[in-house]
Amino acid sequence: MFIFGKIKLYLIAGLALLLPILYVLGRKDGKKIEKGKVLADELRSRNGPQIFTKRWQNMKKILLLIAGMALLNGCAETVYRSKLEVYCPPLQQYSSEFNEELSVELEVLPEGYTAIPMVVTDYVKLRDEVKTCQRERDKNGD
Q: What's residue 96's pLDDT?
């Protein structure tokens, strides 16, 4: 027990000698840390207005963008239509006398004329398609 008592005594004496040294070193490091905090606070206080100004400029841009989008949204018109809109070209209405005269003229054409009857046949098909378009439009109620 005596050995352990002496070791305790030496340990306590060694810690007692180290304690003032640790205290002085701690204060020295503490001053450096405190000085670093003061410098950081000073730097923040200097850059504070600049950071605020930059943030405010960015916020102004965002606010202007939002305001512009809101104003442009008021100009937009949303159109919802549940019906199908059918647009058909108007047809020229010919009298029955004109149609008879046209058929007589086509009959008396010499056999060498093949283009004219083909064009007339295409025109008749086109007129039939337009009439079908108009019937569909009228059926849908437009």
A: 92
Lookup: tokens for 103: 């058929």
List, for residues 25-79, the tens digit of each pLDDT value.
777 777 777 777 777 777 777 666 666 677 777 788 888 888 877 777 766 666 6
Q: What's the total number of domains in the chain?
A: 1
**Is residue 5 situated within a structural domain?**
no
- Summarize the confidence of residues 112-124 as an average pLDDT: 85
Query: Are 94 and 47 within 8 A, CB to CB?
Result: no
CA 43 – CA 49 distance, rounded (Å): 11
Structural domain that includes position 127: 96-140
Using DSSP, state whether 82 is helix, strand or coil. Answer: coil
Which alpha helices (DSSP H) does the chain contain, by range?
A: 2-75, 96-107, 115-140
Q: Could you tell me if 85 and 142 are in contact, meaning their C-beta atoms sit under 8 angstroms apart? A: yes
